[in-house]
Structures are given as C-alpha cells and as structure tokens.
Amino acid sequence: MAFELDGIEQVEETELAALLNEKGDETIVVDVREPEEYEAGHIPGLPLLPMSSIPAVVAEMDKEKSYIFVCRSGSRSQNVALYLKDQGFRDVKNYAGGMLEWTGEVTSGLEWFVKDVHELYKK
C-alpha cells in the first residue's frame, strides 16, 4: 500500500512491479542514479536520467504525464519528485525502497541513457 511523505506518494515494491508488468504508457518510471550505479544493476527497461541532469531538461518534460522515480535508497528520487512538484508537476511519485529493496529482475550495462528527454514519451 502506498503512503505519503512530504506530499509525495511513496510507491512500494509490489506496486512498482505490478505497474512495470502492465507495460502501459500512463506512468513513466525513471532511474535517477549516476551512470555507474545504473550500469552495475538496474530494473530492466528503465531509462536513466541522472538527478543532476534534470534541472537542465525540466522545461522540456511533460507536466501532464505521471512519473515514478527510482534511485539507490529512495532519497534522491524523493528529492527529484519534490523538485518537480515545485516546478508544477502534479503526478510525481517516489519508489520508496530504491534499488536496495528491489527483489525483482536486475540487469547490468547501460541499457537506456536518456540523451533527449522526449525519448521518455516514445514507448
């Protein structure tokens, strides 16, 4: 069951896994860790958009979309969600456990590094 922290909905592992299995395009799940962390192990199919690059692309992001952010522990992704909420995004969520809590499938390598934020919307 999701809960809220500082006005941001916290998604738990079972909810994230179910959402990823649906393969719908309503919610965009984004890994916000650094490239070396992502390469070491990430949830298959998730795009990498490092936290540090978000301020440079926020103006190009679609405020009408739903987002869930993932990091190592849930702290950086929470900060990204808070930042975007402050920028006028209405539907931003945090994966509370981060990769430390993820027990599902993990893959390594640089699968999908977002070079153009519009890639996020072309599933």
From TrEMBL:
SMART domains: RHOD. Coiled coil: none annotated. Residues 23-111 form the Rhodanese domain. Keywords: Transferase. It comes from the Bacteria. It comes from Halalkalibacterium halodurans. The keyword Zinc does not apply. One of its GO terms (molecular function) is transferase activity. PANTHER family: FAD-DEPENDENT OXIDOREDUCTASE, SULFURTRANSFERASE YTWF-RELATED. It holds the Pfam family Rhodanese. This is Sulfurtransferase.
